[in-house]
Amino acid sequence: RGLSCSARTAREDSWLKSLFVRKVDPRKDAHSNLLAKRETSNLYKLQIHNVKPECLEAYNKLCQEVLPKIHEEKHYPCALVGTWNTWYGEQDQAVHLWRYEGGYPALNEVMSKLRQNKEFTEFRKERGNMLLSRKNQLLLEFSFWNEPVPRDGPNIYELRSYQLRPGTMIEWGNYWARAIRFRQDNNEAVGGFFSQIGQLYMVHHLWAYKDLQTREDIRNAAWHKPGWDELVYYTVPLIQEMESRIMIPLKISPLQ
């Protein structure tokens, strides 16, 4: 009788657990192939540097001297998309976004050539003395987002970063493919990316606004559009953590 009771209890537990198991449709391709732009092979690198407070001015000056040379030199198959200081969020922070036109081979080519560049080697050494910490991620751009292109200013930029629950990237993409339509009336959508290397299941949305009040007005207006509230309702449960940075572009940034 004891064995029979134990077996029945085990079956009941198994049945109850099955009610809460998330059913996932089998995928026939990598998430990156399903979500990324197919017409381009661009790879993006997001760099976040935490600078010693007393060194931020010198750090910015150094970057403004060296980074444009890499951006403008045709010898390197890469482009500086934007470079900023964080205004609201973590302080004394620099954010750089690079595009590598040709994917991983272009990234390898640029890194190999820069290792032979004595000016860049000295730049990295001098920059390293100014930093508290640094991290980077390699990203792909969502197929349904605008590709970031240079724009005139003045603007402030918001980088909204989302740590998704593992396994939910396709769902996020499906919802935001519709949600982005609600946020394009004022040309505020700059770019949308998801991580490939570094911290995984990370999504970054980059927005441009005239000022903080304009940001508030545009975001509030989205709630008056039928369907926006539903998309927010379904995407919020996919998020583990989220962060917002308000950033000011440096003078050399193509995104002003």
Describe the fold and architecture.
By secondary structure, the chain is of the alpha+beta class. The chain has a single domain, classed as Alpha-Beta Plaits (2-Layer Sandwich), CATH 3.30.70.100. It contains eight helices and eight strands. It has helices at 2-19, 31-35, 56-72, 104-115, 118-128, 169-179, 212-222, 228-235; strands at residues 42-51, 78-88, 93-101, 131-141, 156-164, 189-197, 202-209, 239-249. Strands 1-3-2-8-5-7-6-4 form an eight-stranded antiparallel β-barrel. Helix 3 (56-72) packs antiparallel against helix 5 and helix 6 (169-179) packs antiparallel against helix 8. It is globular. The N and C termini lie far apart (76 Å). InterPro entries: Dimeric_a/b-barrel, NIPSNAP, NipSnap_domain. Keywords: Autophagy, Mitochondrion, Transit peptide. Residues 157-254 form the NIPSNAP domain.
